[in-house]
Amino acid sequence: MRYRVVAVGRLKNAALRAACDEYLDRLLHYAKVEEREVKDEARVLGAIPEGARFVALTRRGEELTSGQLAEWTRQWETDGRDVVFAIGGADALPDEVLRKAERLWSLSRLTLPHELARVIVYEQLYRAHSIRRGEPYHRGP
Fold it and tell me: Vertex 58, ends 53 and 62: CA angle to 5°?
């Protein structure tokens, strides 16, 4: 199983790029991860491989605890299908893209910059895997 993050736009902020890279490096100890940047929202669906589980990030999605995300990752790993997370740009993901998703995931009801959302996705995937392995990184309930 492989995670793929499809993000609209380039991550230009050096500090956020460094944070993404830090969590990507950590996450790579547990899973295969790819990052793909697309120019605009219209290209998101074309970046999703056939047969992959598609999770779209949107404020309208389901809010999870880190423990619930850990359970999702456990189920996904058992299922063996690749998982694609789509993060929209400044204009968010259009309804056409959201309708194609198997799941809608909300990081928060707040509006977040798409660059920061990418950092949070990587951090939460890393946290989910550390929870599953009983490692000390996660200290929350």
Answer: 75
Of how many residues is the chain composed? 141
The tokens for 111 are 């509006």
At 73-130, the pLDDT tens digits run 999 999 999 999 999 998 899 999 999 999 999 999 998 999 999 999 999 999 999 9
> Within its chain, how far is the Cα of 29 from the centroid?
17
What is each CA distance from 15 to 11, 12, 88, 97, 107, in whole angstroms? 10, 9, 20, 29, 20
Q: Which residues contact 35 (CB under 8 A, 6 or more apart)?
A: 4, 5, 7, 20, 24
What is the reported pTM? 0.94
